[in-house]
Amino acid sequence: MKKDKRFKPLLITIIILTLLMIVVSINAGQIKIPFSTVFETLIGNGTPQNELTIFQFRLPRILLAILVGIGISISGAILQGLSQNPLADPGILGINSGAGFTVVLYMFFFQGTTFFTGWLATFIMPLTALLGAFLAAFLIYSLSWKKGQVTPVRLLLVGIGINAAFGAGLIIFQMKMEPIDFTKAIIWLSGTIWGTNWTFVWALLPWLLILLPIALYKSKELDVLSLSAPIAIGVGVPIEKERRWLLVLSVALAGACVSVGGGITFLGLIAPHIARRLVGARHARLLPLTAALGGLLLLSADTLGRVIMAPMELPVGIVVSILGAPYFIYLLMRNV
Amino acid sequence: MNLKKHENNRVLSLTILVIGIFVLFLSVVISIRFGAANLTYHDVIKAIFEYDQENSAHVIVRELRLPRAIAAICVGAALAISGAIMQGMTRNPLASPSIMGVTSGASFTIAIALALVPGISYLGMMTFSFIGAGFGAILVFGISSFSKGGITPVKLALAGSAITSLLSSLSTAIGLKFDIAKDISFWFSGGVSSVQPQHVYFALPFILIGLILAILLSRSISILSLGEDVAKGLGQNIGLVKFMGTIVVLLLTGAAVSIAGMIGFVGLVIPHITRFLVGTDYRWIIPYSAVLGGILLIVADIIGRMVNAPFETPVGAITAIIGVPFFLYLARKEGRGL
């Protein structure tokens, strides 16, 4: 009951924090723009140069960070719910690397064609990533399937293996690429918000607008699945069928986000865990809070990566891993 | 009758070992002979026995091909023996240097060494590598032994994979910060393609010492692999054996990483294949692992050179492709059955 009351204030606090972070993030970077100038530019009284920096570079990147954060963390929350596995995460399970593999293949085969450079590419890229994400998920699911069930432990171990396989495949293809594309692929793989223009925002947004409401709509099924299997069957939920649909949903979210955000690991793990601690395990409350937290976390990590080693830029995926891996280890030590 | 069967087994094991060494020798010859510049067998033999500095073919053999082949054998043997010892001591079928964080620890400290001490000597780098191997192992073992429910095969694998991604992220950050990303990515992709002759000859004694120690320890490891209670019952000093075993693993893995960077799955796959061939006696498993590990890596290196010529495919990618199906097979058993 207490956690029920906490939900709204917490959500509002996180949204306010995100807004604050947006302001900080606009301000920070190679070209430092004072807060007052930021404000002036936002209401339309800025210099053309500041307008360019803010509207064409900073803002789309900030929006992308938030969107990718939301998508990946919701994907993680669904994965954890459906597999009853507190350690599940699209990155750890190898779904991201599957998406990464097909994207690199795509870069390899279509480099230099209009397919690669045209505006169409921004829309084809998510589809390519999606394909790879589903391929990886299918492999993981079917290889962990044994005697009619998928145990959480087997899922994780198989995921680690699939991750390594796609990783090796990536290396082999990277070697054949032109040096410029190679560098691009490397940066992309370590997880970075690289598409800093509005096209990428428009490419990602529809996916989230369609998939997030479905996830929320499914929160009751997720609640039931988190209980033990016999109870779920007793309540009348066809477990494996629901699981498969939810898996498709989660993989679609992860794939779409990977196509713009690269391989970001551990975010889908952390955000749902923090949210669960704050508002409990009911998905109707858990999912919105996870989304808000995910957006905030990724934006903060991206800003940190831009500032911490300036003028060098640390890919956001690296920042998230450095912060997220210890948390994963902590969870590993606590869970039997 | 039983005794005779035992005797037969020994003969069989010995025969396979001799065949193995012969195959290894053959792979070395192939590895030296073929490559970007094709040499003749005559050149190879001449270069080894009647070295002529003016002859470019001889220089290729002496300076490039031979060190590379030796490096591949050493690294493969060292990783395979480490894996065998780890699996025997912990009775954990998933135990291996790459899965348990030993190789990533070593690569991480090498990254630090490259950043802090530019132009570090090879001895310095190897020292860092040894320290890092120990550091990684301690982290992973510490995490899994302090966690609820104690050490399980699965937990070790998960902790190892988390530590690996943490350390490689940190190394990438170090690489970007100190502008040595390219050097560091070499250690992480793993390979023997640009190996330096003097490095190989420098690391060779360490690997030989490790190999000899491993063979001396093999009887104790066989006993330990029956379970700690049994080993205690047979009057074994478990603490000492485990300590020595760990030292050997760190020595071998540290030296291997300092030559070739992170190469996965050799230490996982080879001991399993060896056990399938010769059973549970580590007096056989260790020399077998050495030979088979050497063969695997040198063949993987030859494939890496051929498959995508003129580009080199890192040998770590090849071993991963060979090793992953194996890992998946073990994963489906959830780490049971050793």
TrEMBL record, chain A:
It is a multi-pass membrane protein. Keywords: Cell membrane, Membrane, Transmembrane, Transmembrane helix, Transport. InterPro entries: ABC_BtuC-like, ABC_transptr_permease_BtuC. The chain crosses the membrane at residues 62-79, 91-110, 116-141, 153-173, 185-210, 245-274, 286-308, 314-333. It comes from the Bacteria. It is found in: Cell membrane. One of its GO terms (biological process) is siderophore-iron import into cell. It holds the Pfam family FecCD. GO terms for molecular function: transmembrane transporter activity. Belongs to the binding-protein-dependent transport system permease family. FecCD subfamily. This is Iron ABC transporter permease. It comes from Robertmurraya kyonggiensis.
From TrEMBL, chain B:
It is a multi-pass membrane protein. Pfam families: FecCD. Keywords: Cell membrane, Membrane, Transmembrane, Transmembrane helix, Transport. GO terms for cellular component: plasma membrane. This is Iron ABC transporter permease. One of its GO terms (molecular function) is transmembrane transporter activity. Signal peptide: none annotated. The chain crosses the membrane at residues 12-34, 69-86, 98-117, 123-144, 156-178, 198-218, 239-270, 282-303, 315-332. Coiled coil: none annotated. The keyword Lipid biosynthesis does not apply. Belongs to the binding-protein-dependent transport system permease family. FecCD subfamily. One of its GO terms (biological process) is siderophore-iron import into cell. It is found in: Cell membrane.
